[in-house]
Amino acid sequence: MAVAPLHKDAGFTLVEILCVLALLGLTAGLVVLNLPKPAPPFRTEVQSVTTLLNLAARQSVIDGKSRGIDMTTGHLDILAYDGDWISDRQQDFTDIYDVELIVEGAEIDLGAREKKKEKSDLPPLIYFDATGNVTPFTLSLEGRDESFILSPDARGRIVMEAAE
């Protein structure tokens, strides 16, 4: 059996390898530059609050238990009703600087409510019932550079809109 002779020209030259590496580096750089930038922390927190409220509304319909929302200037609490109001989930506001809540046309003084809440149990501010009804409300959340308004739509879904 004859063995093929080895050619002196077999293989890649150093220049060819360096060219391939340079092209791979340029391609990787273009990919990294075109990756989407992460959302600012404030926007992420507002989206998290919106998701939490929508989850509470849907869960009320699924399990047939009423849910309530209670809040202060720095905290949101979702309550489930099972004979008594029991805390289901909580979220602290970290990147939200100002919170304004209007429930059924009346502005709620969240600072005064926080002081009253320390002394007694207060009922929730917003209700989600098992039929999908939601207490009409407008929640304004302000960050450093932007602000958003959360409110229920006609189907009871909480929507997030940029404030003007």
Shape: elongated
Computed CA radius of gyration, to the nearest angstrom: 28 Å
The N- to C-terminal Cα distance equals 84 Å
Contiguous helical run count: 3
Strand order of the largest sheet: 5-4-7-8-9
Tally of DSSP β-strands: 9
Report low-confidence residues grouped into runs of 5 or more: none
Oligomer: single chain
Q: What's the helical proportion of residues?
A: 25-40%
**Rounded mean pLDDT score:** 88
Order of helices and strands: HHEEEEEHEEEE
Q: How would a textbook summarize the main sheet? A: 5 strands, antiparallel
Strand content of the residues, in percent?
A: 25-35%
Structural classification: alpha+beta
Task: Characterise the protein shown here.
- The chain has 164 residues and is α+β, with helices and mostly antiparallel strands.
- A five-stranded antiparallel sheet has the order 5-4-7-8-9, with helices on one face. A four-stranded antiparallel sheet has the order 3-2-1-6.
- The longest helix is centred in the N-terminal third of the chain and has 23 residues.
- The N and C termini lie far apart (84 Å).
- The model has no long low-confidence stretch (mean pLDDT 88).
